[in-house]
Amino acid sequence: MSESCDLNGVYQFHGDTFEVTPTVKADFDKYGYIIIRNLLDVEEVDKVIKEFEDPSTAELLNNNKVKVSDCQGREAKMTIWGHPGNDVSGMISRSEKVAGTCEQLLGDEVYHYHGKLVTKEPFTGGAHLWHQDYGYWYINEFLEPNMITAFIALDKCEKRNGCLQIIESSHKCGRLDHKLEGQLTVTDPTRLDKIMDRFSMKYCLLNPGDALFFHCNLLHCSGQNSSAYRRWALLTVYNTVSNQSCKPHHHPQYIRLEKVPNTAIKSCDKFTDLTDKRILVPKTFDPKQVIPKTPA
Q1: What is the dihedral of CA 240, 245, 249, 255, to 10 degrees?
Q2: Nearest-CA neighbor of 220 among 180, 185, 181, 183?
């Protein structure tokens, strides 16, 4: 397996829109991801950080954090919500340059499956093991892997603070078996070793405002934060309308996504009212309900 920071499918956001050209779509289909540098500009990043750092918002987020042990003495932490809402972060998730890009990459109308703020605090932030997101979501009876995540860096993402690591083109390997390891899921290690022998592992080094759009079958993980710098990221997951779940579960079923123009991010002044996001209460989140145990 080769390790590199030289990512493929990297583009720059210029002007007011991003066009998914045939080349962009081909890169996504080939590698399982694309990166758009500066998708959010400095003002937009500052606005969403202002929202999440506001004392009242921060208290709500902290009181509803899902804390997942990485079996190495540290915790991965995230706050999860079911609807995008009308706040600043909601405008980002509903914007054309985020939601619209996902629709073009997947070739279908998308709706908001869930969103989350993932926080890796200095010296304590936990790791996430190698997995596919569809390894989680398959058990919720989505029949097709027509799902995508938009990962937007709010802080600099580096090796030392636990940036994402991806295996290029691994989405072509199909859904792999997953099992619980502590409170985290991990993919089949034997198959993972063989995939790593064939495909390249890349570190996703991102600056604030950079966005990684990746397919739900792309293998990825992230390390612990062993630095003095936090690593916050805003993640939004989208599913296609044609791929609705066959059963109710802890995330909402299809609700039409009301997309907004990109200008809505800067014009939004809603920083503290998150009631319409329907934040997931941690006690209702049980990883054993999200991923099945591997039979003995």
Answers
A1: 40
A2: 185
What sign does the CA torsion over 221, 230, 153, 79 have?
A: positive
* 193: amino acid identity, one letter: D
pLDDT in tens, 205-255: 999 999 999 999 999 999 999 999 999 999 999 999 999 998 888 888 889
Query: What's residue 183's pLDDT?
Result: 65
Q: What is the DSSP string of 84-112?
A: --SSHHHHHHHBIIIIIHHHHHHTS-EEE
Using the structure block, give the residue that is written with the tokens 């295996």. Answer: 167
Distance (Å, whole) CA 99 – CA 148: 10
In whole angstroms, what is the distance from residue 48 CA to residue 136 CA? Answer: 27
Q: Are strands 128-131 and 220-222 parallel, antiparallel or unpaired?
A: antiparallel
Looking at residue 182, its pLDDT comes to 66
- The predicted-structure confidence for 159-197, as pLDDT tens digits, reads as follows 999 999 999 999 999 999 888 776 677 898 899 999 999
Tell me the C-alpha to C-alpha distance, in Å, between residue 27 and each of 2, 9, 92, 105, 214.
19, 5, 24, 10, 11
Q: Where are the beta strands (DSSP E) in the chain?
A: 3-4, 10-12, 33-37, 66-69, 75-81, 110-120, 128-131, 147-153, 164-167, 178-181, 184-187, 201-203, 211-215, 220-222, 231-240
Cα–Cα distance for residue pair 120/74, rounded to 1 Å: 10
What is the pTM assigned to this prediction?
Answer: 0.92
Per-residue model confidence (pLDDT) at position 72: 78
d(CA 167, CA 171): 9
Residue 72 carries which side chain, given as an amino acid letter?
Answer: Q
- Say how many Å lie between the first and final Cα of the chain, rounded: 30
